Amino acid sequence: MTKKKSKEVQHQAVVTKESLKFLERYINNPSPTGFEWEGQRLWLDYLKPYVDDTYIDNYGTAVGIINPEAKYKVVIEAHADEISWFVNYITKDGLIYVIRNGGSDHQIAPSKRVNIHTEKGPVKAVFGWPAIHTRSGEKEEAPSLKNIFLDCGCTSKEEVEELGIHVGSVVTYEDEFMVLNDRYYVGRALDNRVGGFMIAEVARLLKENSKKLPFGLYIVNSVQEEIGLRGAEMIANYIKPNVAIVTDVTHDTQTPMINKVTQGDLACGKGPVLSYAPAVQINLNKMLIDVAKKNEIPFQRQASSRYTGTDTDAFAYSNGGVPSALISLPLRYMHTTVEMVHKEDVDNVIRLIYETLLTIEDGQDFRTFTK
């Protein structure tokens, strides 16, 4: 910490016990793409004490607003949806085949417990898989969309349908949140509900530290990122922001079977990741770097080539071009049920967004050729 660093932020940027309780509830709650509303209710209930107004669009993107009357608008954004499955085919024997809703990994599915969501409530099921004793041959068949299936304990299609399950029912994993070695947060859907948690914590800090911003701040938790950045695309055109700072996860590349030559050298515990990509506006990104250095916030760098693959792209190319930047959180085992993020990285992403907001001026011009 520098001498200029305020003690209030140094203390309060660390996730509190109450905040952690919310994070656990929020991660454990299912919010599959297209069906995010329960998670959005939780998020808005947590956020409401820290904002002046709220808004929900037609597809479920939730927004908390500070200074809604201001003309200059700054967005901080994450996405709320998690990967899941759709019921696609029910056999006459009561077994269920699925298709993806987002980037669900078929290789991790066998033996996982799931909830099939129906109008009657969730139905428990498991991804079945033949026992090792029954598999034979020189080359074993690997899990694929053609052979993974759900078993909910029924013996006929009619029995499955009586439970309220039908083609199009959405399926989520059952795995729950935990803290590992007092160092990592672990759970499904940390991609990217941990982002929604972090931007909500920024709002909490602004309120608790009585910080008055000279612009309108829009805390945005978008839907449908996992299927093409659709929620961000819609809300960007509604808000018409002047600046957008997006937070999402990126890959920790320190575990086996990951090629650093192609994926970069990034690690949990070494700080937020700042990206270089065409959608990342040069001067806004430079501000993030300057703020990180000034406040002694550790950070890492990532080259994202043609596009970031995050909601940054949707905001950047909306409304004739919105200066946008990306702050990523390193994460292990993306799109599995044991996604892991480092506690200190979470704190530091919160700090970086918070300190950056205190640096942005009303009406600030980020155009490249005016500097």
TrEMBL record:
Keywords carried by this UniProt record: Aminopeptidase, Hydrolase, Metal-binding, Protease
Protease is among the record's keywords: yes
SUPFAM superfamilies in alphabetical order: Aminopeptidase/glucanase lid domain (SSF101821), Zn-dependent exopeptidases (SSF53187)
Coiled coil: none
Classification via Gene3D superfamilies: Peptidase M42, domain 2, Zn peptidases
One Pfam family here: Peptidase_M42
Keyword Metal-binding: yes
Family label: Belongs to the peptidase M42 family.
Name recorded for this polypeptide: M42 family metallopeptidase
Organism: Sphingobacterium thermophilum
